[in-house]
Amino acid sequence: MMVSEALLEKLSDILNRDPGVNLIPSPSQPTQIEVEQQRLKAQGQWVSAIASLETLLLLTDQEGTSEETPQGLILSAPTPILCHPHLTKTLHRGIFTLQHPHYRWQQFQLTGVSEGTEDNNSPKLTELPIFPQDPLATEQFCLVLTPKFPLLMVLGEDSLGLPAFQFSFAPDMVTQGWLSLRSRLKLVNHPQLAYLDQLVEQFTPVTPSYQVVTEFTRLLLHYCPQIPPIITRKNSYIQDLQENHHQPQSRQQKPLTASQVEETTDIALLQALSHEIRTPLTSIRTMTRLLLRNKDLQPKMTRLLENIDQECSEQINRMELIFKATELKSKSDQDCSVELVKISLDSLFHQSIPRWKKQAQRRNVDLEIGLPKKLPQVVSDPGMLDQVLTGLIEKCTRSLAGGGEIKVQITTAGHQLKLQFQTESHREHNPFKALGQLLLLQPETGSVSLNLDVTKNLFNRLGGKLIVRQRSQQGEIFTIFLPLN
């Protein structure tokens, strides 16, 4: 089935016609760095908007509502965007996914939902088609209809063709968005169209209260991640070079060395790549967890899905750690955003050790952890400390591809807590090679990790210290000191 682009428009085109959406003009003739910065900013806002929407839906949920009939409608692409069990049970969700031109309608459902016809009112996850030639396939979007508010969110382009995140609570904008989506379903005569029409009529877009819009905006600011500062810094450096070129020699700033320029490029690239990798992995993990809710899965299939979930989580955590490490490396000590607080190590290790052991078992590595009867409190950042320690365990297990042992000993040393990670390989220790200014590559396994200088910087920002000692070709000793409370 061929669809003419002239007959279809993107949802961002609809929002671009609303003068209240684009209040800040885009720069004229933006540089490549400015476009990349705008893209990262828009993607960060999209992720923030998803978290904000889920929170807002829970806050505005009507108590005592039945899960048998839908309490709202959410259409999104290219993946489901809600994870909370209550919302997945009470909202009808349609997912627009890319289809082959010779598309034949089918649908898939969530756990516990029996096969039904188009007039079955039980909430389910319905697959809806987008074709490769449809310009809508280039966007991520979400259209929401509930008794309390309508909402249209789009990660697409602004009126100048630059990456942009836009949203609108205006009923007419949301209605136009639905009509645009409806035209696609009408073209393929989708069997669920009549039922979706009923839901749209039931949840006709209404003007939301100002409290709803205000709360969404507050949540959007709360969840919005910080834009990688290195991109702005790199752009500023290029502008400075252009300005200094026309200034007297005595007034020119000291130029960066080749190593500093290379490191700056590495940081910008790593931050962009880490974001690009995390986004699809998060979608895969979300879909995997939806499938795991199916009680009819065979044990073998459950184990496979659990492995996918674990692998995605490990890769997401690794990318988050790389992103945070590069962000901190690009900041001065005064700009450091790490907040050091009292941490209960009992709670941290209770949650982390089972996960570390699973990591080691998958690599055929024995993990032995010696804990004292009572762990003291330390001063650090709990989230980052868990990520950094998990990353260190991951680095150790991947370096022991032929099997081996990791011994972890935790003791006190004066006013510090001492954590010692000692690796012992069953054969020659796998070497690492430098990959740029910030990463290490292990050719035998393809493993990528932060180099020691960056890792040491992370522990310094956490209020601690890392010392590395090479024992032999068969192992290493990583000693970490953290300040006691």
UniProtKB/TrEMBL annotation:
EC number(s) recorded for this UniProt protein: 2.7.13.3
InterPro entries hit by this protein: HATPase_C_sf (IPR036890), His_kinase_dom (IPR005467), HisK_dim/P_dom (IPR003661), HisK_dim/P_sf (IPR036097), Histidine_kinase_KdpD (IPR052023)
Keywords per UniProt: Kinase, Transferase
Reactions that this protein is recorded to catalyse: ATP + protein L-histidine = ADP + protein N-phospho-L-histidine
Amino-acid biosynthesis among keywords: no
Domain of life: Bacteria
Record bears the keyword Nucleotidyltransferase: no
Single GO cellular component term: plasma membrane
Domain Histidine kinase as annotated: residue spans: 272-485
Record GO terms (molecular function): phosphorelay sensor kinase activity
Enzyme class: transferase
Name of the featured protein: histidine kinase
Species the sequence originates in: Crocosphaera watsonii WH 8501
